[in-house]
Design brief:
Elements lengths: L2 H4 L7 H4 L15 H22 L2 E4 L3 E7 L16 E4 L4 E7 L3 E5 L12 E4 L13 E4 L1 E5 L6 H8 L3 H16 L6
Length: 187
């Protein structure tokens, strides 16, 4: 059979080709591939653990309160005892703070200054003149400023009522409170 002369022997299996070098009597190296794979896996797990741990922290400025929102479910922790103050806090992976001011906050209705007011002046009318029955009052523009500060125990209730947009509501309520009081003014 002439075709058997042309066949080559199959190469040895991969494991048989990679024989470790002979070890001397004083050589205590264990260079097995299984140990190297285990070490790489442990290093990858350690790195992943460090990254997950590091991303489980969030920061609040010293002038802020914060309530924790779960990034997976959207649930917000509204227990007044769980309102956080400024600092670095461990709040778990994919959680974040919804922040509220802890300091005095100035809100202003005016057109004075350098464009730092929160709203334009409040347009209103004075009350009618009691001596003149045809008087409908005079148009006026009121420039008003006030301050507010949120107490720690009130943060969950404010979030439940207004969400994170509480300041816009405070401006609206202030305008609604100030405008009717102008009716008592007589110019």
């Amino acid at each position: 059979f002439f075709f058997l002369d042309h066949l080559q022997a199959a190469p040895p299996p991969l494991a048989a080709r990679r024989t470790p070098p002979p070890m001397d009597e004083d050589d205590d190296c264990d260079c097995s591939p299984a140990r190297a794979d285990w070490t790489k896996g442990a290093a990858a797990l350690a790195l992943a653990s460090v990254l997950l741990f590091a991303s489980s922290w969030d920061v609040l400025e010293p002038t802020e309160w914060g309530v924790v929102q779960n990034g997976f479910t959207g649930y917000v922790e509204l227990d007044p005892e769980r309102v956080f103050e400024g600092g670095r806090h461990f709040i778990w992976l994919r959680h974040s703070f919804i922040k509220f001011p802890r300091r005095l906050v100035n809100l202003e209705f005016s057109d004075f200054g350098r464009g730092e007011s929160d709203q334009a002046p409040i347009s209103a009318r004075t009350g009618p003149d009691p001596d003149d029955k045809e008087s409908g009052g005079q148009p006026i523009r009121l420039c008003v400023a006030f301050q507010y500060q949120i107490a720690r125990r009130d943060v969950p209730r404010i979030y439940q009522t207004f969400g994170a947009l509480h300041e816009a509501s405070y401006l609206r309520f202030a305008q609604q409170a100030v405008a009717p009081s102008s009716l008592r003014a007589r110019l």
